Amino acid sequence: METPNWLLRRAERTPDRLALAFGPLRLTFADVAERALALAGALAAAGTGPGERVALWAENGPGFVLSLAACTLLGAAAVPLNTRLTVEEAAFQLADASPRLLLHDGPLGERARAAAAQAGGVPTFALDPDDAFAGGAGAAPVRARIDLGDVHSVVYTSGTSGRPKGALVTYGNLWHGAVAHAMTLGVRTDDRWLACLPLFHVSGLAMLTRSWLYGLAVFVHERFEAERVNAAIDADGISALSVVATALGRMLDARGRRPYPETLRLVLVGGGPAPLPLLERAVALGVPVATTYGLTETASQAATLAPDRLAAHLGSAGTALFPTDIRVVREGGGDAAPGEVGEILVRGPTVTPGYLNRPEESRRALEGGWLHTGDLGWLDAEGYLYVADRREDLIVTGGENVYPAEVEAVLLRHPGVSEAAVVGLADPEWGQAVAAAVVPAAAGAVGVEDLRAHCAAHLAGYKVPRRWRLVEELPHTASGKLMRGRVRETWPADG
Amino acid sequence: METPNWLLRRAERTPDRLALAFGPLRLTFADVAERALALAGALAAAGTGPGERVALWAENGPGFVLSLAACTLLGAAAVPLNTRLTVEEAAFQLADASPRLLLHDGPLGERARAAAAQAGGVPTFALDPDDAFAGGAGAAPVRARIDLGDVHSVVYTSGTSGRPKGALVTYGNLWHGAVAHAMTLGVRTDDRWLACLPLFHVSGLAMLTRSWLYGLAVFVHERFEAERVNAAIDADGISALSVVATALGRMLDARGRRPYPETLRLVLVGGGPAPLPLLERAVALGVPVATTYGLTETASQAATLAPDRLAAHLGSAGTALFPTDIRVVREGGGDAAPGEVGEILVRGPTVTPGYLNRPEESRRALEGGWLHTGDLGWLDAEGYLYVADRREDLIVTGGENVYPAEVEAVLLRHPGVSEAAVVGLADPEWGQAVAAAVVPAAAGAVGVEDLRAHCAAHLAGYKVPRRWRLVEELPHTASGKLMRGRVRETWPADG
């Protein structure tokens, strides 16, 4: 199926509507289209054209948005890089994606040049710090129509285990994702979304897609800061935002008991299962939380629990989006029974066609027409999905399976615990030993013996951590996902 | 593209949400699915199956909705018939569509049996007046998945000129129509639509599609009654409804100066251009009117002017829906200049693949990949569509083109005029003479000389009607469209 170019069509339809807010900057859709066209002209002059790839290394801001827009105007696939990558990691992704150009903002200039050189000499292109791109670059040959089968972007999956793979995200994946989003959560033409998570993640690309398709404003913050988010909800009339669970917790901590205004209609919580106590707190405060399960390979949401269903299915990631199907299968094959943990499989129009340069991994991931997510979870009898854990985090101790999220959820119920990471450490006797790294709610708020007793009271013996650390903070990805692999790798030999 | 069966998926997702209200009856999505499954079982027992057609002759009510739902469960294409058809007209459409069954409600029983017999013996099936359909009909083989290329229904176009043609409406036409609707007008999960126009029109099918895809409630009235509509907006919290211009006028007349509640967010006005004075009145009263241009062949809306743009583009039908393109072409070919009247062409995912049993007419209608609507209009420089008239209503007098809607709009500006129809009557001297039939606002409110002077003050001489009638009412189609052909045909020879 073909559609008109999304940004150009939107700029024709509602040219004067607010598209993008960043600090004091306010851009209408006409402004965004005008600047993106100018940037596209500059990129075309630098030799970029349809069917090519353009890497993009930029912090949240207009430069990122306009670069992405310029790529869609040229028909080039964007390759957004995680801004936290080391030079070596970025060079690996650049070498894999072989982009025609690497666009970067000012702060990333030095690392961008080093990574581009290390990747064999990818040309770099510094984004104009004023984001005006008006510098007489000439008109680019613009793609007025979009084929939904074309590749919109290549997004490298976080790859906490193994080497990163570039998931192909098509225009159709994003289009149908925006459509399915509306079928579960509705969409208001006066919605104002807050982007306080990295735009380079697929959830950021999905948010910008919704902005262009539905004509919604996006307010962009450089990074998540709880007080600033709360202030924006009050002052900017933010109606919807995407956060991870820890960010929601910090928002509520900073907010105290002051209710959010009625203009706030949706807080989409993704990036891993949210702790039950946090969700209970949100429900008690009347915060319109929707939990969601999604992957880069499903162009953001695959399952979502709308705010009006949250309380009745607390802890679930909801049901598969309207045009999407989810199955849970046993290790040996065959559908798991309701309540039985297995691998989560996803099918539908938002599922990636595969990975760049990885025919064999693509074939395996999409075998039988279903995306094999590698994530573990179960469906209840009504089809509500509960995500147990990432498969690579599964702990096997003495022949018993332990799902870290389950143990962490128990730890988080303890009033003295702020955050917890549970991992499996190599153990000569049991194969793996369950180990817990815990951030106390305050210095000295809790001791190991207390925590051990708390777990023993709520968990089968083999699930109770054998090894403990009290730490000041835990490592997270840029999107706020807990990096259990890092916790495991950095565990002291004598800890 | 495939999707899950819309109704079944919706009933899984939000089983307890209100789907359908009719008088005191309230059905959730689970109720609708349950009853539709029972009816599907009965239809399967009567020999109906996938790929067949099922005609449906029923007034607005649950019987219509459940019958349509049962057809989608079986994979049979519904053929909804206009309830105002004569037996002969219905028999023509039945013979053309050759359905496996003719479903009918009680009031239409006698005419249905007569038409079915006249069409060569189509079996008839009386809908249960209680709409329960629980009578042990056994389980039907249900289509769990829908191919968007499959035919959902065959809808006969009003055919005021020539013989009626059955436009094929695919699942994809309706799906993309619902998607495009949301991109222009948004969709709220708590929306409550009022269906006070006939459900058998494509706008009714589109409304039910939105209900199933987005989980919205539809309140059904048997027919349009201004006071009842106004009362439902107050008492039932109706947030959106579709009407024709005359209906909107009656609603506002009945309402007086009492404002509508804030829950009302959308009054979609279609079925032909709305008179400017009516739109000005709606704007002054703050009624959230959206004007729209659509056809059976575009699965309802093709262009829409959202409420927030109405005042700035009064009289326009808006811009083409997001994934839709509209061109206006000259008689001889080539795109018309901005402001220049020509034929309206439509392209996009909501456009019909053609007409049943009419390969040649389908080819002509869709030549070059664009639907040739036969309607006349123009685009302004910003792409806003103004519908001038139906081509078959064009009046040519003394070599000059006169568009009836233009003359009618002038007449409607006169305070003594309630409604007007302008037609061309055969004239020995000029080819056609412009003739106006006028409904005065009250008996004796206006005279012909007054009206002639009013027109002469606002129109070029050749556009001023030469022949006049003052009448008590004008003929309309079931959907409220003015039937100019009827006015012309019934004009007295000496009038």
- Please summarize the sheet with the most strands of chain A: 9 strands, mixed
Rg of chain A (C-alpha, Å): 23 Å
CATH architecture of the largest domain in chain A: 3-Layer(aba) Sandwich
Structural domains of chain A: how many: 3
DSSP strand content of chain A: 25-35%
Give the low-pLDDT segments of chain A.
none
Largest interface: A-B, 31 and 31 residues
Q: Trace the largest sheet of chain A across and list its strands.
A: 3-2-12-11-13-14-15-16-17
Structural class by sheet pairing and helices of chain A: alpha/beta
CATH superfamily of the largest domain in chain A: ANL, N-terminal domain
Round the mean pLDDT of chain A to the nearest integer and report it: 91
- What would the principal axes of the Cα set say about the shape of chain A? globular
Q: Count every beta strand of chain A, where a strand is a DSSP E run of 2 or more residues.
A: 26
Number of helices of chain A: 15
C-alpha end-to-end distance of chain A:
57 Å
Q: Within the CATH hierarchy, at the fold level, what is the topology of the largest domain in chain A?
A: Rossmann fold
